[in-house]
């Protein structure tokens, strides 16, 4: 059996020695680098290539993120595992988004967990995305290979075992609670409670007693002591839905519990210690809420250990046939099919209510039409009438993207192939002009968007999936 070629990059000799010993026991050939310069030298001289790399994010002379991209550019098939301290976990997740397989958090206390991750690194499976789709589907999350949702699910799968809080962002109906259940179900807490609490569904006067519980006699009607959601979720996961709706009085107490793991029942004196993983969700821009003094910045920092953004359905229309088929199977309609024209109408509609709205439309349609084949004419009139014309916006967006790709390719080819010598190029001018074009295009899009939204920057930030601060920056406004 061919030995795996493993690269270890870390400036701490204790770390490289540990992994060298650990991996040689697994019959691997190990190469060690302590600096970015070492990595560059090895990439030029190591003709056999590397099957996998363990890469520290912080090196004395190089950025781990830059080295990740360099390693992947030379050896695309090399699986990279990021090593990081708690203070750089956000950077580790950025690395995953850029192609890293997973990350390990220093110090390496959980040796069993470490071995599982290393084994997974060494046993790459060609069916990983298919397996992930099947796992996610068991929680109600349906997507197809290559979908934007597939990327989010892959990151969530890697985050699930980590002892870190997660903030899930996304529009109403995108499946934020399903993603929270996926994170819980794939974690070590899976056999403990998953407790969901909607911060916007309970009157402010009852929020504290619902979350923290209360003692007998704490208020009129408190005839016996009652556990709150914090106690019910002990050792498990507490999902705080619509966290942006939490009033200021509760935000303070949530912050204290997040920091210390302690709380006191309403009317009580005894401090209770909680062991909870917090997953929160919002359809609001919490950065904007912070700017408007409606949400505490320190609480946001605590909640967003890692952020996951669930894409709206209109950005993953390729998943609509699979979602519809999954719905039919769960409903027991194995003999019912959706014809191609109906699928096209569903894919052309904007779906402001996202997956939840799609499921409701399908449910209503099948309740009204007992049919073997669901056709376009069976769909509600508002869906058919408001479906985007594929000959206009959708096709133009696709055509524009293709044209942009073609023009960029032509430009790069003209620079790299037609220019005989770099002496003919004004490098500083080229790079500055490209940055200027990017700025001009961004500003033109923002100005057009402000016209369409009648100056509603909150709405525009959601449409473009950027923050209001970014809008101000592009418009050169002072913050």
Main features:
alpha/beta; five-stranded parallel sheet; 14 strands
Written description of the protein model:
With 479 residues, this protein is an alpha/beta fold. It is built from 21 helices and 14 strands. A 5-stranded parallel sheet has the order 2-1-3-4-5, with helices on both faces. It is globular, with a radius of gyration of 26 Å. The protein starts with a strand and ends in a 5-residue tail after the last helix. Mean pLDDT is 85; it is low at 390-396.
Mean pLDDT value: 85
Rg, Cα atoms, Å: 26 Å
* Shape by Cα distribution: globular
> How many strands appear in the DSSP assignment?
14
Q: Which consecutive residue ranges, at least 5 long each, have pLDDT under 50?
A: 390-396
Q: What percent of residues are in strands? A: 5-15%
* Helical run tally: 21
Strand order of the largest sheet: 2-1-3-4-5
> Largest sheet, described in full?
5 strands, parallel
Q: Based on helices, strands and strand pairing, what is the structural class?
A: alpha/beta
Helix content: 40-55%
Ends apart, CA distance between termini: 60 Å
Quick description:
Helices cover 49% and strands 13% of the residues. It is of the alpha/beta class.
